[in-house]
Design goal:
Helix content of chain B: under 10%
Order of helices and strands of chain A: EEEEEEEEEEE
Number of helices of chain B: 0
Number of strands of chain B: 11
Number of strands of chain A: 11
Distance between the termini of chain B: 36 Å
Shape of chain A: globular
Structural class of chain B: mainly beta
Structural class of chain A: mainly beta
Distance between the termini of chain A: 40 Å
Number of helices of chain A: 0
Oligomer: heterodimer
C-alpha cells in the first residue's frame, strides 16, 4: 500500500496566524486532492492538483503540488476560527479507481 | 440537489448478524466507493466500482461485500460483522476523467456502525 504521510497531525493556533500542512509520499501520483471535513459530515473536496509544480489558490488557502508529484502542501494565511476542521490529502494513480488518503491534520483556530 | 445518500446514519448490531448499508447517488456518476474512517488512520478504501457490474477491492476489503447492479446504488454488505468493523463508513461518488478517478466529488454524510 502506498502511503501518504500528513504533518502535523494536530495543529492549534490563534486567529490571524499562518500555517502550512504537508502531505508526503515516496510514490508518484497523477493527481492529489485536499479535502476538509467537519464533525458529523463527510469530507468536502477543496482542490485537485494534477501538474507537477502547480499552485492553486482558494481565497486564503494556497495549494501546491511538488515538482515530482510526490508531495503537496496546503498553506492558510491569516487563519480564522471557521477554518477549524480535519484536513485530508489524497492521491490518485493514473489508472483505475484507487484513491489513497493521508491520516489527516486536525486544525483548531482559536479566536 | 446533487447528493450521495447513505442509510442508516447510525447502527448498533451484534457480532454475526448480517447487515447492509445502502448508498445512492443522483448524479449519474460512474465511479462509487466505500471508505472506513478510524482515528489516526484517515480514510481507508474498502471497495470501489468503476461502472455497473464492475467492482474492485480497495485496501481493506476483508469482511465486506459490495454489488453494483444499477448505476445509482452501491450497497455495502457485512455478512458476519465483527467488533473490529466498528467504524465510521463513507460512501462516495465521482465522475471519471478519461476513465480514471482523479478525486472524490461527493461524499455521503457517513454511517456510524457499532458491532457489539
Amino acid at each position: 500500500t502506498q502511503l501518504l504521510e500528513q504533518s502535523p497531525q494536530f495543529l492549534s493556533i490563534q486567529e490571524g496566524e499562518n500555517l502550512t500542512v504537508y502531505c508526503n509520499s515516496s510514490s508518484v501520483f497523477s493527481s492529489l486532492q485536499w479535502y476538509r471535513q467537519e464533525p458529523g459530515e463527510g469530507p468536502v473536496l477543496l482542490v485537485t492538483v494534477v501538474t507537477g509544480g502547480e499552485v492553486k489558490k482558494l481565497k486564503r488557502l494556497t495549494f501546491q503540488f511538488g515538482d515530482a508529484r510526490k508531495d503537496s502542501s496546503l498553506h492558510i494565511t491569516a487563519a480564522q476560527p471557521g477554518d477549524t476542521g480535519l484536513y485530508l490529502c489524497a492521491g490518485a494513480k493514473n489508472q483505475g479507481g484507487k484513491l489513497i488518503f493521508g491520516q489527516g491534520t486536525e486544525l483548531s483556530v482559536k479566536p | 440537489e446533487a447528493q450521495v445518500t447513505q442509510n442508516p446514519r447510525y447502527l448498533i448490531t451484534v457480532t454475526g448478524k448480517k447487515l447492509t448499508v445502502t448508498c445512492s447517488q443522483n448524479m449519474n456518476h460512474e465511479y462509487m466507493s466505500w471508505y472506513r474512517q478510524d482515528p489516526g488512520l484517515g480514510l481507508r478504501q474498502i471497495y470501489y466500482s468503476m461502472n455497473v457490474e464492475v467492482t474492485d477491492k480497495g485496501d481493506v476489503p476483508e469482511g465486506y461485500k459490495v454489488s453494483r447492479k444499477e448505476k445509482r446504488n452501491f450497497p455495502l454488505i457485512l455478512e458476519s460483522p465483527s467488533p473490529n468493523q466498528t467504524s465510521l463508513y463513507f460512501c462516495a461518488s465521482s465522475q471519471l476523467d478519461r476513465g480514471v478517478a482523479k478525486n472524490i466529488q461527493y461524499f455521503g454524510a457517513g454511517t456510524r456502525l457499532s458491532v457489539l
